[in-house]
């Protein structure tokens, strides 16, 4: 009985903690604020050069830097400076003074003796580049002329398995989202950004184990993951996820990451083929999204600023323009993944063919 009560209490505590940490919007908004403030802090750091090496400043500045990004919102309040821990000083709890340090972040600089300069990047017109998550040299103009109708007809058993796995995943997706394409796109991008990261990571480890080059495929797959993540960063500007959608992402990611990891270990041929079909489905979803926009069922709002800079779009672009470039990206991912699977089918290793850099 005691054990049972203890178990229930523990479960309740875990649910409350997990709910606060992972499903609330606090953590993400805090991080966003922190990025903005860190930029400002970096800008004023030079003016505080005389303070460098001062242990108080070093300690406080690390606290500010680590405050939002490492820990969740609740745990932050009891967070202590790593510098203090490293120096073996007694650990202190956050106090009103600490809060004051946080609230005055805009006026203080991040001071560090590590010599890492704050990066200051400007656009071609001289105005400041405002995104820390990507840089001007990572932006590009999407190739909208790509053939959207290309399809790999499944022939082998493995192809058919990959094809029907993707098709069957579409059923619950259609039921859950129906015609809410903005939300659907945002949620699906949380899944689409996983395969590239898993594949890139596994190729990275393989390269280390075998003392051999990757042919550029590690970078290509990681870039695909980053590109998909940018799709997500864009769509979350137009569709705000609800708490239960965040919870769903949490669950799906836990399952999909591990399943794809195992799948890629067992058969990269199957894994890439499946992603190829997922991308074909993504093209279909974005085509439906465009139809809804054209019918007026979804408001064609101005394009988010992040999308305008990332895809080098004209300033007056709209959501429709964004969906067009995202769909073109998906078509490129489709080609790359079917190509990778074809190579495996021919008994070749990916590193034997140069990775398709700049193919987007
Ligand atoms: Fe995507
Ligand atoms: Fe994609």
How does this structure look, described?
By secondary structure, this protein is mainly alpha-helical. The protein has two domains: about 1-120, no CATH class; about 155-350, Ferritin. Helices cover about 65% and strands about 0% of the residues. It has helices at about 1-25, 25-45, 55-70, 75, 80-85, 95-105, 155-175, 180-210, 215-235, 245-265, 270-295, 305-310, 320-345. The radius of gyration is 24 Å and the shape is globular. It starts with a helix and ends in a 15-residue tail after the last helix. Mean pLDDT is about 75; it is low at about 25-105. Bound molecules: fe (ii) ion (2 copies).
Give structural attributes.
single chain; 360 residues; mainly alpha; Ferritin; 2 domains; 13 helices; 64% helix; globular; binds fe (ii) ion
The gyration radius over C-alpha positions equals: 24 Å
Which series of helices and strands comes N to C? HHHHHHHHHHHHH
> Uncertain runs with pLDDT below 50, 5 residues or more?
24-105
Tell me, what is the CATH class of the largest domain?
A: Mainly Alpha
Tertiary shape: globular
CATH topology of the largest domain: Ferritin
User: What's the structural domain tally?
Assistant: 2
Characterize the largest beta sheet: strand count, sense, and whether it forms a barrel: none
Class by SSE composition: mainly alpha
Give a count of the beta strands, DSSP E runs of length 2 or more. Answer: 0
Bound molecules: fe (ii) ion
Main location: mitochondrion
Enzyme class: oxidoreductase
GO molecular function: alternative oxidase activity; metal ion binding; superoxide-generating NADPH oxidase activity; ubiquinol:oxygen oxidoreductase activity
GO cellular component, one term: respiratory chain complex
